[in-house]
Design brief:
8 helices, 185 residues, 61% helix, mainly alpha
């Protein structure tokens, strides 16, 4: 299926426009992990809009480069190993931070101003005519292949019959129709 639908503009405050906005703005795990390779520049942190972390990586990388050019190699190697350990710890938490970012984005877009229910929406639908408790009581008494015990709900006017009762009524009706044959003229 082509991705042409992503270019459509539904221009409204409905679920379709919200999903289109989310599709455009959600951060993808593949991209985030690919950008982690450039952790020295903080690319993955910029991608997740973590500005302080991104600038921290960038500043630390520049500082480490200056120390490597001017300082003794054991100090540079030690700082490099420490920096790599921090980067690996960052990699371990990258998926959790990515999920948190996407969740916060969904929440922000869902609760933004102008996100109102559709016209005519009156809350959750409830069917006052059907009594689910009677239905559940009948179904709890049934066993597979056996008819339900007679309950007050099943005997009440307008109550639905069990499957077996319906089948018996259909067989009786078909038998009555066969016995009353009209002569052809």
């Amino acid at each position: 299926m082509s991705n042409a639908w992503k270019q459509w503009d539904f221009s409204g405050a409905g679920l379709q426009s919200l999903n289109l906005e989310l599709t455009k703005r959600l951060r993808k795990p593949r991209v985030a992990f690919g950008l982690w390779v450039g952790f020295a520049l903080g690319l993955h942190a910029f991608y997740l809009h973590e500005r302080p972390r991104a600038f921290g990586y960038l500043t630390t990388s520049l500082t480490l480069t200056v120390v490597a050019l001017r300082g003794p190699w054991p100090v540079t190697a030690g700082l490099g190993v420490l920096y790599l350990a921090v980067a690996l710890a960052d990699l371990a938490t990258l998926e959790r931070r990515l999920t948190a970012y996407n969740k916060a984005l969904r929440l922000h877009l869902s609760l933004r101003k102008g996100a109102t229910p559709p016209p005519g929406f009156r809350g959750h639908y409830t069917d006052h005519d059907a009594d689910i408790h009677d239905y559940v009581a009948v179904k709890e008494q049934e066993r597979a292949g056996h008819s339900a015990k007679s309950t007050p709900a099943a005997r009440s006017v307008g109550a639905s019959q069990s499957f077996q009762q319906q089948e018996a009524a259909l067989r009786a009706h078909a038998k009555d129709r066969k016995s009353v044959k009209t002569p052809r003229s």
